[in-house]
Write a structure and sequence with these properties.
- The protein has 144 residues and is mainly beta.
- Helix content is 8%, strand content 47%.
- The protein is built from 1 helix and 8 strands.
- The strands form 2 sheets. The protein has a 6-stranded antiparallel barrel. Strands 3-4 form a two-stranded antiparallel sheet.
- It is elongated.
């Protein structure tokens, strides 16, 4: 078991992070090939190929792009694009550039089902959690 100088053994740190931070369920997948629905003659996405699903978290890297004013005068921040971090256990497979990511379960119910694209994966000599950078595109999420 590797122990950084003056710190917790990495395995102990991983267990803490995995139980306290990775509380949502993330899925990364290859999008399915679109096809024409014979009933509607509209292009629809094909069935995705799930690469991995398990414990994780997705966090924004910065503040939202836009603040929408509601009728009651409150502001609701809305991110229309930007970078996010996906955190997964170190033993999870590495997401790749051709993968898309979604949350299948989360504390924030509004985040469930949103889609991000994999940008890059960080490497570390003392990994406690895997960090994958994602890009959010509102056009892939019904404009929101």
């Amino acid at each position: 078991m590797t122990t950084p100088a003056g710190g917790l053994p990495l395995e102990a740190a991983r267990r803490i992070v995995e139980t306290r931070l990775l509380t949502d369920t993330v899925r990364f997948f290859l999008p399915g090939e679109p096809y024409i629905d014979p009933d509607t003659l509209q292009e629809v996405p094909g069935e995705p190929t799930v690469i991995w699903e398990g414990a994780g978290a997705i966090q924004p890297d910065r503040s939202p792009d836009v603040t929408v004013r509601l009728n009651d005068g409150t502001g609701t921040p809305v991110a229309t694009s930007g970078r996010y971090r996906m955190l997964t256990p170190v033993d999870a497979p590495v997401a790749k550039g051709e993968h898309s990511v979604t949350l299948t379960a989360a504390e924030d119910a509004d985040a469930v089902g949103r889609i991000w694209e994999v940008d890059s994966v960080e490497r570390s000599s003392t990994p406690v959690v895997r960090v994958t950078w994602l890009t959010y595109d509102s056009s892939a999420n019904d404009g929101s």
